Amino acid sequence: MNKIFKILAVVVTCLVIGYFSGMVTRSAIVTWYPTLVKPSFNPPNWIFAPVWSMLYVMMGVAAGLVWNRIDFDKEVIKKALILFAIQLALNALWSYLFFGLKNPMLAGIEIVLLWLMIFETYTQFVKINKIAGYLFIPYLLWVSFAMVLNGSIWWLNR
């Protein structure tokens, strides 16, 4: 497989997972979420779809670049891609916990684990391909913000 195909395959996978995560949130965004007390720094709802779409594309490009490094140690690449898959699954799980189960506390606990997995994926990716690692920085920053937002929503609505 060539580099472009690998990148496209992972980008499409990330976007599909993002789409299904979005399906979990759709009904809660118009019914449950508006009833919550939110902090003053809560962004408008419309910002989430474009930000997440961009982040999923960046994640996919990063993983595709790592997957393409056939000249690197195969075990190191395998470990990095397993971490990538775990963090992607945790990313989807957060939407289900927060919006599907309507449980900000459980989602708050899970997002800490997600952040740690993103950071570990970043540290592995940057060793294999610097650009792949750097593409994870906005994702790490956004999930850091989401973690604070999640905690604030839980605190204000407990």
Q: Are there runs of 5+ residues with pLDDT below 50, and where? A: none
Using the alpha-carbon principal axes, give the shape. Answer: elongated
Span of the ends, CA to CA: 50 Å
Mean pLDDT: 96
**Helix and strand sequence:** HHHHHH
Task: Give a short account of the largest sheet.
Answer: none
Percent helix: over 70%
Q: Give the strand content.
A: under 5%
What's the β-strand tally?
A: 0
Determine Rg (CA atoms, Å). Answer: 16 Å
The helix tally amounts to 6
The assigned structural class equals mainly alpha
* Multimerization state: single chain
Q: What labels would you give this structure?
A:
elongated, mainly alpha, 6 helices, about 160 residues, about 80% helix, single chain
Draw up the topology in text.
Layout: H1 3-30, H2 48-67, H3 74-100, H4 104-128, H5 130-135, H6 137-156
Helix pairs in contact: 1-2, 1-3, 3-4, 4-6
Can you characterise this structure?
This protein has 158 residues and is mainly alpha-helical. It is built from six helices and no strands. It has helices at 3-30, 48-67, 74-100, 104-128, 130-135, 137-156. The longest helix is centred in the N-terminal third of the chain and has 28 residues, at 3-30. It starts with a helix and ends with a helix.
Question: What's this model, at a glance?
Answer:
80% of the residues lie in helices and 0% in strands. With 158 residues, the protein is an all-alpha fold. The longest helix is centred in the N-terminal third of the chain and has 28 residues, at 3-30.
